[in-house]
Write a structure and sequence with these properties.
CATH class of the largest domain: Alpha Beta
Radius of gyration: 21 Å
CATH architecture of the largest domain: 3-Layer(aba) Sandwich
Number of helices: 13
Strand order of the largest sheet: 3-2-1-4-11-10-5-6-9-7-8
Largest sheet: 11 strands, mixed
Number of domains: 2
CATH superfamily of the largest domain: Isopropylmalate Dehydrogenase
Number of strands: 11
Structural class: alpha/beta
Strand content: 15-25%
CATH topology of the largest domain: Isopropylmalate Dehydrogenase
Shape: globular
């Protein structure tokens, strides 16, 4: 298996990427293609303790940065002979020289580059950026979390197909329960988009359980939650902020006196479990489902641990033949719902 890793993605690049590539190559015994400027990466790779076996540098002297927007970003993403690390890395995927691609760089840049260079799986109109949310007794697949602020009902229907397959292949859920995020559980609740999407999901062969609120999502009552990217991005960022607030407040209170410090020491194993559950670094990266290749996007603040986690998730997707499964499911579901093809 060959995993391409963008060496110019994280906020502190390329050090976390170099460390992650070495660790992943050693742990998984796979080939890690480290994509970035060879003149910078070669000395860093050589300066690390241990063997660099299993890590191959793919030269890409340029980068897509957080400052790249609009036309400048589009040109970097789609230019045929682009030399930036995203374009070079995704071309490895397109040319079957890599099985998956991971970046912790500019999310918009990754979306645009994957869209222009890979295209969408036949039958799809939009890709969906996907996250695994920690919920009661496990994780739930949530999409879209920001790729598509404006959606049509058929887009969310397609997100449900992809999310269901991801839950099956990565989480091992046999018949994933799908919920449509709304402001109420009752049929007829929600804005026009939610009300128009619900009948499509009800008519499908998927295990759609109806509208859900946040309590059903975090209570573990669904395996997949679907929504437009505007709503999903607010949900993601709000959830991360609340989790950080709780952890920070708890840490401050527990360190406030000798008595609470003693209690904290006794409860340390439980707090470690909670911290691990809420830490985005445990998952590492979110898959961009719908593009015709396995692309994973991580946080800009990713460290080596988070990037190794991202490589682990990407490996699971490759081993599960996720891309082929999504292709087959899209074809099957769209054939069973022919009216969507004309929308």
């Amino acid at each position: 298996m060959r995993i391409a890793l963008d060496a110019l993605g994280s906020d502190n690049c390329p050090d976390p990427e170099v460390q992650a590539a070495l660790q992943a190559a050693s742990e998984f015994k796979d080939e890690i293609l480290l994509v970035g400027p060879e003149n910078q990466l070669r000395p860093k790779l050589g300066s690390q303790n241990g063997s660099s076996a299993g890590v191959q540098i793919i030269d890409a002297p340029e980068a897509i940065t957080m400052e790249d927007k609009g036309l400048k970003l589009a040109l970097k993403a789609k230019r045929r002979n682009a030399k930036n690390s995203m374009a070079v890395g995704i071309d490895l995927l397109k040319n079957n020289q890599a099985d998956a691609y991971i970046t912790a760089g500019n999310t918009g840049g990754a979306l645009a580059t994957a869209y222009y260079r890979l295209g969408l799986i036949k039958g799809l109109e939009r890709p969906g950026l996907t996250a695994l949310f920690p919920v009661k007794d496990g994780h739930a697949v949530v999409l879209d979390i920001g790729a598509n602020p404006d959606c049509k009902p058929e887009h969310i229907y397609q997100f449900a197909i992809m999310g269901s397959i991801y839950a099956q292949k990565v989480l091992g859920v046999k018949d994933p329960r799908i919920g449509l995020l709304s402001n109420g559980e009752e049929t007829g609740k929600g804005n026009q988009l939610v009300r128009d999407t619900s009948p499509l999901l009800e008519a499908s062969t998927m295990n759609f359980i109806g509208n859900i609120e946040g309590k059903e999502l975090f209570g573990g009552q669904v395996d997949v939650a679907v929504m437009d990217g505007f709503t999903g991005n607010i949900l993601l960022k709000s959830s991360e902020a609340v989790a950080k607030l709780l952890i920070d407040t708890l840490r401050e209170e527990l360190m406030s006196s000798f008595r609470t410090k003693l209690g904290a020491a006794m409860a340390k194993p439980a707090f470690s479990v909670i911290r691990k559950m809420l830490d985005p670094a445990e998952v590492g990266a979110a898959p961009l489902l719908g593009v015709d290749g396995l692309v994973f996007i991580g946080h800009g603040r990713s460290n080596a641990y988070a990037l190794v986690s991202a490589i682990r998730v990407a490996r699971q997707a490759v081993e599960a033949n996720l891309l082929s499964a999504i292709r087959d499911a899209i074809e099957e579901q769209l054939i069973s719902q022919p009216e969507l093809e004309a929308s």
